[in-house]
Structures are given as structure tokens and as C-alpha cells.
């Protein structure tokens, strides 16, 4: 079977493996410390790994696979990214507030995801994924900035750094640059994202429920 974008496939799979490994470490830490925020953070990592794996398969074998298979791979990718943003935002809220306010905010986050999920049943453009993911990351950034300067939370700086690196990676991905015929903007994006997820892991393992 011919691989249409071998480097994109390879870097996507590498990203999936690294993020899945870090997610497993987060999940183990959440069971040890019984922190819901850390467990939700780990679920965001698992969803991101799934998105990378399915996205890589789509990029690598789209020309070889049946249209229905390609559709399933792409929908898996966009829904997995949506779940990742949902879990990251919920984890941030668990580390910030509690009680009835937390319940209402979690309900709002779930409502946002359901709107996104319904919209994506009839749309495939990746820009809608960004419209959902970017605001969630900005909100998490705001939460962590508040925790950094207001509470001196030890993991906030790591998470802020991870989000900023992730934004830089998104800028690379949107640039459309082609560095080599076998290494383009998507490939560099995946490699930079590995660094972003490492920073998010270092911060996520230090999350504590409010």
C-alpha cells in the first residue's frame, strides 16, 4: 500500500505514541492521588493521541482507502479533538472552583461540546475544529494565569508554557510552509506539539482539585 504523505504519517504516529504514554502516566498519577482534575487531563491526552493516530492514518492512506473509511477516520479526528478540549477545560475548572458553580460550568462545557458535535455531523472543514478548540485553550490559559499569580500554583507555569507552545505550533501549521518535499508545515507542527504536550504533562500532573 502506497503512503501518500509518509512524513506526516510518521510524525502523527510519533505524536500519538508520546501523548498516549504521557496520558497513561497522568492516569496512573490520578489514581494514586485521587485527583479528578488530573484524571480529566489524562483523558484529554488520550483523546489527543486518538486524534493524532486517526489523522495520521487519514493523511497517509486517504488515496488508498474507501471513501467511507476516510470519512470515519476524519470524523474520529475532529470529534477526538473536541473531546480533548472538553476534558482540558473541565480539568481546569475542577482545579479552580467547586460546589454548585462547578456543576453549572461543567454543564456549560458539555453543552458547548454537544453543539460542536452536532455541527460537525454536517461539516468537515478543520476551521470549525479550531473555532471550538482555540477558545477552550484560551479559557484554560486564563485559569492558569489566575492560578499562577493569584494562588502560586506550582503547575500553572508549565501549563501556560504548553499552551503558548501549542499556539506557536498552530501558527506553523496554518502557515502552509513547505521546508522540503518530504517535510512540510504539518510535520513540523506535530514535532512542536510533542514539546507542548510534554509541558502540559508536567503541569497536569501537579493539578489539584479545588
Q: What structural category arises from helix and sheet content?
A: mainly alpha
Helix content: over 70%
What is the approximate shape? globular
Quaternary structure: single chain
State the CATH topology. Answer: Rhopdopsin 7-helix transmembrane proteins
Name the beta content range: under 5%
Broad CATH class: Mainly Alpha
Element string (H = helix, E = strand) = HHHHHHEEH
Mean residue pLDDT = 92
* Rg from alpha-carbon coordinates: 17 Å
The total strand number stands at: 2
What does this protein look like?
With 210 residues, the chain is an all-alpha fold. It has one domain: Rhopdopsin 7-helix transmembrane proteins (Up-down Bundle), CATH 1.20.1070. The protein has seven helices and two strands; from the N terminus they run ααααααββα. The chain has helices spanning 6-33, 36-61, 67-94, 99-120, 127-151, 156-175, 185-204; strands at residues 178-180, 183-184. Strands 1-2 form a two-stranded antiparallel ribbon. Strand 1 (178-180) and strand 2 form a beta hairpin. The longest helix is centred in the N-terminal third of the chain and has 28 residues, at 6-33. The chain is globular. The protein starts with 5 loop residues before the first helix and ends in a 6-residue tail after the last helix. The model has no long low-confidence stretch (mean pLDDT 92).
Amino acid at each position: 500500500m502506497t503512503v501518500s504523505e509518509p512524513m506526516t504519517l510518521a510524525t502523527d504516529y510519533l505524536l500519538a505514541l508520546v501523548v498516549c504514554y504521557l496520558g497513561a502516566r497522568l492516569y496512573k498519577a490520578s489514581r494514586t492521588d485521587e485527583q479528578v482534575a488530573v484524571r480529566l487531563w489524562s483523558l484529554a491526552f488520550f483523546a489527543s493521541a486518538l486524534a493524532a493516530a486517526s489523522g495520521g492514518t487519514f493523511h497517509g492512506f486517504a488515496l488508498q482507502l474507501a471513501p467511507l473509511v476516510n470519512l470515519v477516520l476524519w470524523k474520529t479526528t475532529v470529534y477526538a479533538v473536541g473531546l480533548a478540549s472538553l476534558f482540558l477545560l473541565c480539568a481546569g475548572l475542577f482545579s479552580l472552583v467547586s460546589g454548585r458553580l462547578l456543576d453549572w460550568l461543567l454543564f456549560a462545557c458539555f453543552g458547548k461540546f454537544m453543539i460542536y458535535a452536532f455541527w460537525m455531523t454536517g461539516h468537515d472543514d478543520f476551521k470549525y475544529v479550531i473555532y471550538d478548540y482555540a477558545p477552550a485553550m484560551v479559557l484554560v490559559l486564563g485559569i492558569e494565569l489566575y492560578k499562577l499569580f493569584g494562588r502560586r500554583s506550582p503547575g500553572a507555569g508549565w501549563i501556560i508554557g504548553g499552551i503558548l507552545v501549542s499556539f506557536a505550533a498552530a501558527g506553523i501549521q496554518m502557515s502552509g510552509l513547505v521546508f522540503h518535499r518530504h517535510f512540510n508545515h504539518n510535520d513540523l507542527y506535530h514535532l512542536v506539539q510533542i514539546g507542548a504536550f510534554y509541558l502540559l504533562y508536567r503541569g497536569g500532573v501537579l493539578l489539584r482539585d479545588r
